[in-house]
Structures are given as C-alpha cells and as structure tokens.
Design a protein that fits this description.
The chain has 224 residues and is of the alpha/beta class. The chain is built from 8 helices and 5 strands; from the N terminus they run αααβαββαβαβαα. Strands 1-2-3-4-5 form a 5-stranded mixed β-sheet, covered by helices on one side. Helix 7 packs antiparallel against helix 8. The longest helix has 28 residues. The mean pLDDT is 91.
Length: 224
C-alpha cells in the first residue's frame, strides 16, 4: 500500500480482514508512520518501489494531484510487474490515470469509498454499508466490485468520463453540509445556547435522512 494518510490504512485493514496479506506500506512523515504502526502493526514500512516489487495488488491512497507523477515515475524506472493489479482511491481520476503503466501489463482500477475518513479504526464501521465507486476496463470491473464487497461496501460503477463530475458532486455535498452545520452552530452559540452541536446534529441528521428517502423515491419512480 502506498500512502498512510487517513484512507490507506483503513482500506488495508478492511482488505486484511477479507484475507489479503499485507506486504508493505509506504509512509512519509512522523504522523503517517505512527498511524501505520498503530493500525498495521508488523507490516513493514518500505519505499514505494519496494512496495510495488513485493505486491500482487498495489493500493495507491494518495491525493489525486500526486497520482499522475507517481505513476509516471514508477513507469520510467520499470517498477511494475506483469499482471499486477493497481488501484487508486482518488475520486477525480478513473483508471485512465494508469495509462503510462499499461504497456508494463498492469491491471488498472479506481475505487473511491464515499465516506469521510478520520484515520482511525472507527472508519471500518463507516466503511461497512457505504458505497465504493468502481471504475475500470469492462473485463476488470468484476474484480473491483468484488474488492468493494470484501471491504464491506456496496460497489457502484462510475464511468471513466464521469469521474470528474462524480468528484465535484461529492465535494459539493461535503462542503455544503459542513457550511450549514458551522453556520447554524455559530448562530446558536451567539444566542448563548449551550451545546448547539446537539441541537443542530439532530435536526441535520433528520433532514438528511428525509432528503435521502425522497431521493430514493425519485430514483425508484425513474426506474433506476
């Protein structure tokens, strides 16, 4: 696994729970190393080429802005293995970001879990029952869907060309939700109301659940 931020170690834990062996993790910085040691004890911390060399499946849990350069660098140094499954978690990219590595015989997939991550084992509960956007070449989609199920999530296929719009939609939902909560709690705090988070939390959760039920009803009416 490459990347020991909030996302990578949790997905690695989920995959390990499904029977996958963890061969190594790449972690940069004291916080990432501490997280890797805490959540993945006994898994060796290695440099990126060594993680790639040892692994039949390589999970890249790095920011989308870093992904193209990382893939290009590994391709230039001949790090890939024939038949190696390579997966990234960036919402805005599809499997096409692995294009430079295809000549080396890698099998590309993009898997994005649609949950906010804290970087703690509590995320495993969030992951269970969530959705994971799966993007890949048609023959490989069943593998991505199976991996999503192994992690306890529901796979949702997102087309390659739709990944940027998918990322924008999720970003907008997250930013709007945080802004509404922040504005409401600050207004109640200014009124001298103690624990405004409790008041807003109950209201927002109920409103979101009602909105999701309505959205599900519309989808059912549309035959989706």
């Amino acid at each position: 696994m490459v990347g020991a931020g909030r996302v990578g170690p949790i997905l690695a834990l989920a995959l390990a729970g499904a029977g996958h062996a963890l061969t190594g993790v790449h972690a940069v910085g004291a916080e990432s190393r501490e997280r890797a040691e805490s959540l993945l004890p006994g898994v060796p911390v290695l440099d990126v080429p060594e993680v790639v060399r040892r692994s039949e499946l390589v999970l890249f849990a790095v920011p989308g802005s870093e992904l193209p350069g990382l893939i290009h660098g590994l391709t230039e140094t001949g790090a890939w293995q024939l038949g190696q499954l390579v997966i990234h978690t960036a919402p805005e990219h599809g499997h096409g970001v692995f294009a430079p590595a295809l000549a080396a015989g890698v099998i590309p997939l993009a898997l994005h879990p649609a949950i906010p991550f804290t970087g703690t084992s509590l995320d495993l509960a969030r992951l269970a029952g969530s959705t994971i956007a799966v993007t890949g070449p048609a023959p490989v989609l069943p593998i991505g869907q199976a991996l999503a199920v192994e992690m306890g999530a529901e796979p949702v296929v997102v087309a390659e060309d739709d990944r940027p719009a998918y990322a924008d939609a999720l970003s907008a939902a997250g930013e709007l939700s945080r802004a509404v909560v922040r504005q409401a709690t600050e207004a109640l705090r200014d009124l001298g109301i103690a624990h405004p988070d409790r008041i807003v939390g109950g209201l927002v959760r109920a409103a979101v659940e009602e909105g999701l039920r309505a959205a599900a009803g519309l989808a059912a009416d549309d035959g989706s």
